[in-house]
Amino acid sequence: MTTTATTTEITTVSEGAPSPTDGGTRIGWAVADTLTVTWRNLIAYTRIPEFLFFSTVQPIMFVLLFRYVFGGAIHAPGGGPYVDYLMAGIFVQSVAFGSISTAVGLAEDLQKGLLERFRALPMARVAVLAGRTTADLVRNVFVVGIITGVGYAVGFRIGAGVPAFVLSLVLVLLFAYAMSWGFAVIGLSAPNSETAQVMAFPVLFPLVFASPAFVPVNSMPGWLQAFAVHQPVGVIIIATRALENGGPTAGPVVQALVWCAGLLVVFVPFAIRQYRRRA
């Protein structure tokens, strides 16, 4: 009698549920699942205040270090204030390094068996990765806001108007989101969170420091100049600096958007495939 009642209940629930073959319903489920996983990750961040604290301390230290220690020895192109030249690099560097948390978080979830539990649930496969990267994007919004305030406190001023500045931050955050998907691949490939972090830093360090983030590229060897201005971090920095300080923006912004789109096109399917294989 109990078995019959249980079977009837399951059948009733299944009949009332939307069909998974319905395209609109599947998209709705994916969005809802993504928001749920995003909220779960954001709550986890609030329970580790030390993580949020040190996520903001590092970029603040870089701002103060380059503004007051190295700033006097570095001359910005065009003769403007070095702090105005510096901030674009700080924005991009901060969100790029912050995106490593995607790799660390996914590797930790994988190590704990949490991703296997997600796989056992009737939820969209992409939701786990999209939720993680979206939560990291929200955290980067917070970090960018803090850096903006610190930059203004040490003398940074917008040279091209508020709308262009807001657009520059949107571009920086879009790049951060694309990088998070790339680091998701690393996190799903690493055996644990410590290894994920070790794997991520060698990838990011050359891109950040062999770029026009902190010094003009004309001080670099010729072969390194070509790399610095055409690799993704350098392209995003150049576009961000043009939007913040003024100057030609169409070409740099288009190149930056192409890089962001290309990274997403490559890394999103790769990360989903890696998730299906590892979880």
Explained architecture:
The protein contains twelve helices and no strands. With 279 residues, the chain is mostly helical. The protein has one domain (23-278). Mean pLDDT is 82; it is low at 1-23.
List the helices and strands and how they pair.
Elements: H1 2-16, H2 23-46, H3 49-70, H4 82-98, H5 100-112, H6 114-120, H7 125-153, H8 162-189, H9 193-209, H10 222-230, H11 232-245, H12 250-278
Helix pairs in contact: 2-7, 3-4, 3-7, 4-7, 4-8, 4-11, 5-7, 5-8, 5-9, 7-8, 8-9, 8-11, 8-12, 10-11, 11-12
Report the strand count: 0
Radius of gyration, in Å, reads 22 Å
Assign the structural class, choosing from mainly alpha, mainly beta, alpha/beta, alpha+beta, or little secondary structure: mainly alpha
Biggest sheet architecture: none
Please trace the helix and strand order, writing H or E for each element: HHHHHHHHHHHH
Distance between the termini: 38 Å
In total, the number of domains comes to 1
Shape, per Cα inertia axes: elongated
Number of separate helices: 12
Helical percentage: over 70%
Classify the beta-strand content into a percent band: under 5%
- Contiguous uncertain segments of 5+ residues: 1-23
Features of this protein?
279 residues, mainly alpha, 0% strand
Brief description of this entry?
By secondary structure, the protein is mainly α.
